[in-house]
Amino acid sequence: MEIDGPLIISVVENDTTGARELQLNFKPDFCALDRDMRVVLFQKYIADLGKRISLIEEGPDRQGMLTIQQLAEQLLPYLTSDEIPLEETIVVELHTGSPPGGLLQSL
Predict the structure, then answer these.
(1) What is the pLDDT of residues 3-30, one digit of tens each?
(2) Burial class of residue 106 in the structure, from the number of CB atoms within 10 Å of its CB (0-12 exposed, 13-18 middle, 19+ buried)
(3) How many beta carbons lie within 10 A of that of residue 46, not counting itself?
(4) pLDDT for 64-80, tens place per residue?
(5) Phi, psi (rounded to 5 degrees) for 12
(6) Looking at the domain assignment, is residue 65 inside a domain?
(7) Closest CA to 7 of 59, 51, 55, 70
């Protein structure tokens, strides 16, 4: 599944804990925009995800997109207030044994 937008999303296995993690990085061109434009584009990204999710049948791809949408919604207030360092990697640990896409443990 590929989700085009302002984020670079990777799923990795943590060598230390064995847990699966989502690693999120903002694309350089997104980081170069001013705050107001970043907020507008991120809101559009969330809305576009919602539209795409509504067209997909239940399954791993849909669950993964729902997880990304949930994360994006949680990040939006921090982007709006300019309180998130855009150059840092955001790591989210997924619960083991959860459905594909996982349940969020921490942000």
Answers:
(1) 789 999 999 988 887 788 999 999 999 9
(2) exposed
(3) 18
(4) 899 999 999 999 999 99
(5) -130, 155
(6) yes
(7) 70
- How far is it, in rounded angstroms, from Cα 24 to Cα 97? 21
Its pTM stands at 0.81
d(CA 73, CA 14): 25
Q: What is the dihedral of CA 74, 75, 81, 83, to 10 degrees?
A: 120
Report the pLDDT value the prediction gives residue 61, as an integer from 0 to 100. Answer: 86
Q: Tell me which residue range forms the domain holding 15.
A: 7-93
Number of domains in the chain: 1
Average pLDDT estimate for 52-63: 90
Distance CA 11, CA 91 (A): 10
